[in-house]
Every structure is written in structure tokens, then in C-alpha cells.
Specification:
The chain has 499 residues and is mostly helical. It has one domain (3-359, 401-482). It is built from 17 helices and 6 strands. It has helices at 3-10, 22-36, 43-64, 82-89, 91-110, 113-133, 138-164, 188-205, 224-240, 243-286, 298-317, 320-339, 345-355, 360-375, 406-435, 445-459, 470-482; strands spanning 67-68, 79-80, 171-174, 178-181, 388-391, 397-400. The chain crosses the membrane at residues 20-41, 111-133, 145-167, 187-210, 231-260, 299-318, 324-344, 410-431, 464-482.
């Protein structure tokens, strides 16, 4: 008897092709509800998201008792999933429990139990999504990645529509200067924080196998629909005008290049170049609609969207030499068009608001945060209790609830103890991702999930994102896609090897 025979005897029956387990469907429903309910920022949406994650976690429990591939010592006896599940799965839930427990303890003395309960629910969603997805295999992970990217493309469409047609439900005028796309999340930076990781996942899922992944015979065929999804996600990022979102995108692309190595970086660039240039064309056509004092130009925006789509699709399916020339020509023409408009009032409004990296509101809130930390360095103020007050350059006072930096916000709310527990959680995530290298994954899915996590972590240093429930849920989903999958088999077995 060979190990492959024993594996077939011990492995649970696979799900029917094209179907997803009920637990995974519950997670995807939580994602959908969170996206529609303004990111789950307000209590009704947060409760719905948390409840659906709980349903998914409960539905996963029976699967934890199923066997996994047999061990070499006794190939006919299924090895329980619990030992490996505990070895690979406990650090993240334990770190989430410790951080959530400290939030509740701090609320006991500082008050603010509702805010602390919201933080605990957020941590529960992260850990729950991770535990559900890690109980699946590569086939399910690939389908989940596709569903997330497709849903994200729909959100991106609402972001673009909000600016092109000035729809108040999907765009907001920020500081009476620029209309910025927000989509169904109604907060531009949160929309960017959702779309950037999904764009990275979509780009990576189309690439060839990279180190740490296992190839699949029919993986990632070239498809106009997949190109359109990547393109729309990047158009949505551009329509948010989020500087931190663009920085996070750059971080994620660098991570993808590092994971691809010398052999795969060319393929990654090829998959990303067309949608990136096409999205730049679409965003440039949207630019006249950004300034508040200008009228929207939906016809121009629609023409730019179609032109950008042509660039993205052409870059995917044209021959290599023609593709390079076409992308270069498109980039040059775009540069000429943009430079010709730099002297207009609309362009000046845009450059004044978005080109600078400074922000008086953020710097003022950061200064106020330092004062609060100095007052309670060890234990913090308690979640939801801090108010950031500072004096603006014109002499008026300003107040904010958040500091636009989740790491600094944690230090304010929970003190050095809370920050240490947060660092422990980040360390647990890194440990879990590294453990996932030994398990089979579809080409690019794991790399895309790792890049998505890196982008979300980078963006969290510039905006208050963890208060939007769907974003920590996404972090749990990405972690599940990148982690050891108990539904799969470690790459230590070889087909046909005698026992």
C-alpha cells in the first residue's frame, strides 16, 4: 500500500464541484452584508456581520472531527485533525482573545462597554473567518478568492458612479474641495482599504505558480472577465483619491514581486501592467468631476472608462511586443493629456488637496494622541473614551474621535499593554502565514492573500480602518487563504511512495 492509497481512504469526501461549504457561504454572506451596510461601522451592520461569522464557525465544528490523511505509522487509521489544527491554528485566536479580554477589563474601570464589545466582535470576526477558511482546501480557497474579487468589482463600480454622476449615496465632498468615491461603504479611505487588497488578490490569482504554492493543471486561464475585475478594482481605487490606498497598493505589489521571485516577477508585472495603465486612463477622465466647484462630466468619465478597459484587455491578449508598445503609447498619451490640463483651476484644486502628504487634521490629532498617551501610558483611556482636541492654524479648536492611525489609536485606548497584545497578534499572523507555505495552494492565491494582508497592515497606519467591521473580516479571510489548510495535505507526502 502506498501513501497515496492511504490518503484516499482517509480523506473526507470532497464537496461537489462548483459548490461551497455552508460555513464558507456564511462567511461570504457576512462579507456581503458588511459591504452593503456601510462596512458594518454602525451597530446593526456589525451585529449582522458578527452573527453570520458565528453561524459559519458553528457550521465548521462538525468538520473538525473528521479525519485527515493517514500517518505513515498506521495508514489505515485516519489521523485526527485536532493536533495539527491546534499546532497551526491556536496562536491567532488566542492572541485575539487576549486583546479582546484586555479591552473588556479596561472597560470595567474606564467605562465604555459598548465600544469594547464592538472591538471584541471585530476580533471574533477576524479569528472566526480564519478558522472557517483554514478548514477548507485549495479548491474552496480558489473559489472564495474569485467571489471576493468579483464582489469587490461591484463595489468599485459604485465608487466610480458616485463621482461620475455625483451620487451622494456613493460619493462624499471632502473638506468642500473634492468629491471622492466611497461606494457602499460611504467612507472613501475605507473603500480604498477594501479595494486595494482585493485588487492584489485578483492580480496574483492570475499569475503562474510562485514559490510556496502548488500548481494546478487548469488554474488561471486567461479570461476577459478576470481582466475586467482587476481593472474595475483599480479604477475604484483611483476614484477614492486615497493617498494611503495608493501607498498600500505599492506595498502589496512589492510583496507580490518578492514572493514571485526572479522567475515569476515578469508574469506579475504583465498581469498588473494593463489594468494599472487602464485604470490610470479611467481616473484621468474622471478628474474633471472631482472638484466640488466644477460640474460633473459623466460622458467624459464613461468614455475614459471604456478607453481604459480597452487598454487593460488589449494588454492581456495582444502579442508581447505589440503589448509593450501599446502600453507605452497609452502611458505617453495619458501623460500629455494630463500635463496639458495642469494649469486649469480644477487641476489646481486637485493638486492642492491630494498632491501634498501633509494633513493638518491628522497631525493635530496625532499631537493630541501623544498628550493622552503621556497621561495614561500603561493602560490607556479605554476604547471609545478618548477625544482628540487641538488648535487649528486659524486659532479655532477642533475635536476628533479617531487619530487616523490604528496602531497609535490602540496605544491611546489600551496603553502599552494593549499595544504589546496587538504586536503579539501581528506576530501570530506572521507565524501562521509562514506555516502555510508547507501546504498546497492554488497558483497565486496564497501570494495574493499575503500581499493583501501587507497592504491592509500598511494602510492601517494612516486611517481608522479597524472600526469598519468588514475590513477586519477581510483580514481574517485573507489569513485563511494564506494559512495552513486542514482540508489539504502537507507537501511532505509523495505519490507512489511505499509505506
Amino acid at each position: 500500500m502506498t501513501v497515496s492509497d492511504a490518503t484516499r481512504l482517509a480523506r473526507p469526501a470532497p464537496d461537489r464541484p462548483g459548490t461551497l461549504p455552508a460555513a464558507v457561504l456564511a462567511l461570504l454572506a457576512a462579507f456581503g452584508v458588511g459591504v452593503v451596510a456601510q462596512g458594518g461601522y454602525y451597530p446593526p451592520g456589525r451585529v449582522a456581520v458578527t452573527a453570520l461569522v458565528a453561524v459559519g464557525l458553528v457550521a465548521t465544528v462538525p468538520g473538525l472531527r473528521r479525519g485527515v490523511p493517514a500517518s505513515a505509522e498506521d495508514p489505515l487509521r485516519p489521523r485526527p485533525a485536532w493536533p495539527r489544527s491546534l499546532a497551526d491554528g491556536w496562536p491567532v485566536p488566542a492572541a485575539c482573545a487576549a486583546l479582546g479580554g484586555w479591552a473588556l477589563v479596561r472597560a470595567g474601570s474606564a467605562g465604555g462597554y459598548p465600544a469594547a464589545a464592538g472591538a471584541v466582535a471585530t476580533l471574533f470576526c477576524l479569528a472566526g473567518a480564519f478558522l472557517v477558511l483554514r478548514g477548507t482546501g485549495p479548491d474552496v480557497a480558489e473559489r472564495v478568492a474569485g467571489v471576493l474579487a468579483g464582489a469587490g468589482a461591484l463595489v468599485a463600480v459604485t465608487v466610480w458612479l458616485g463621482v461620475a454622476w455625483r451620487l451622494p449615496r456613493f460619493a462624499v465632498p471632502v473638506d468642500a474641495q473634492l468629491w471622492r468615491g466611497a461606494g457602499t461603504l460611504t467612507y472613501p479611505n475605507a473603500a480604498a482599504a477594501l479595494l486595494v487588497p482585493l485588487a492584489l488578490l485578483a492580480v496574483a490569482a492570475e499569475t503562474a505558480a510562485v514559490p510556496g504554492t502548488t500548481a494546478s493543471p487548469g488554474a488561471a486561464p486567461r479570461s476577459p472577465a478576470r481582466v475586467a475585475i482587476r481593472y474595475l478594482l483599480l479604477v475604484g481605487v483611483g476614484a477614492t483619491l486615497s493617498r494611503a490606498g495608493l501607498l498600500a497598493l505599492a506595498v502589496g505589489l512589492i510583496v507580490l514581486a518578492v514572493l514571485a521571485g526572479a522567475a515569476g516577477v515578469g508574469e506579475t508585472v504583465r498581469r498588473a501592467a494593463g489594468p494599472v495603465v487602464g485604470a490610470a486612463v479611467a481616473t484621468a477622465a474622471l478628474a474633471p468631476s472631482f472638484p466640488v466647484r466644477a460640474q460633473p462630466h459623466p460622458v467624459l468619465a464613461a468614455a475614459g472608462l471604456l478607453a481604459g478597459a480597452a487598454v487593460a484587455l488589449g494588454a492581456e491578449f495582444l502579442p508581447r511586443r505589440v503589448r509593450a508598445a501599446a502600453l507605452t503609447a497609452a502611458a505617453v498619451l495619458l501623460g500629455i493629456a494630463v500635463s496639458s490640463r495642469l494649469g486649469t483651476g480644477a487641476a489646481q484644486d486637485f493638486l492642492r488637496d491630494r498632491w501634498s502628504l501633509s494633513s493638518s487634521g491628522r497631525s493635530g490629532a496625532a499631537g493630541a494622541a501623544v498628550d493622552l498617551i503621556a497621561a495614561r501610558p500603561l493602560t490607556g483611556t479605554g476604547i471609545g473614551q478618548a477625544r482628540f482636541l487641538w488648535r487649528t492654524p486659524d486659532g479655532n479648536g477642533q475635536i476628533a474621535l479617531y487619530v487616523h492611525d490604528e496602531y497609535l489609536q490602540t496605544l491611546v485606548d489600551l496603553g502599552a499593554i494593549g499595544l504589546a497584545l496587538l504586536l503579539a497578534l501581528l506576530g501570530a499572523i506572521v507565524f501562521t502565514v509562514r506555516r502555510g507555505r508547507a501546504f498546497p495552494h492554488r497558483p497565486g492565491v496564497r501570494a495574493g492573500a499575503v500581499a493583501a494582508l501587507a497592504a491592509l497592515a500598511a494602510h492601517s497606519g494612516f486611517d481608522f480602518l479597524w472600526h469598519v467591521a468588514v475590513l477586519p473580516l477581510c483580514a481574517g479571510l485573507f489569513l485563511g487563504l494564506a494559512s495552513p489548510a486542514t482540508g489539504g495535505t502537507p507537501d511532505t507526502f509523495h505519490e507512489g511512495e511505499p509505506v
